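Records of this kind hold a single protein each, on a pair of labelled lines. With that in mind, the following record should read easily:
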Amino acid sequence: MLIVEDVFTSYGMIKALNGVNLSALEGEITCLLGPNGAGKTTLMFTIAGILRAQAGAIKFDGQSIERLSAAKVVEAGIALVPENRLVFPTMSVEENLVAGAFIRVAKDRAGVDDDIERMYTRFPVLKERSEQMAGTLSGGEQQMLALARALMSRPRILLMDEPSVGLAPLIVEEIFQIIRDVNADGMTIMLVEQNANMALSVADKFYLLEHGRVTFEGAPGELEQDDVIRRAYLGTE
């Protein structure tokens, strides 16, 4: 579904991505692991059209998207759930959900309203908080809202950047169960996650990024069998 070919992205003189190659298969969860500064968020921003690649190609369903604006990438069927949630804090929960459907709301308000009800069914706590300002929600509730907001665009693939960051362990378990459920409904997911053990528990395939390059790829079991990487990223001997 998604192919990244030899992508380079820079911040001024700093090269953040140095020829990244990877792919995501339809219906699967593809996980990106790596240390801070490896380029994981930069890669997500580049796929989402927030940053522009200096070289290389990004193909979604066979179509090149590396020159599309962020809004056009959403229209193509890709939605980003950013790190630290980044909900609109002074807007209500329901207003955040409507904002997530910005590409549809003018021409399909009835469909948007139906999708809001579907989000409330999937995330009952959001229905309870529908008129509450998003900035007053707990961290876990904000993560649910960020995910629901992304789903409102009816994407075919979700890019999720560090969904567990700053959350208590029990909430992390809940968020990852939601990720499993969304994937079981047919959603393709690309997941950036520092919690390697949790990420590998849901992933079909993973890539390891270091210094802006893919240095390892495979199935979760292959990572667990590699002694050096296991010690570095799973914290085991």
Summary: The domain at 2-87+155-233 is CATH 3.40.50.300 (Rossmann fold). Residues 169 and 178 are 14 Å apart (CA to CA). The mean pLDDT is 92.
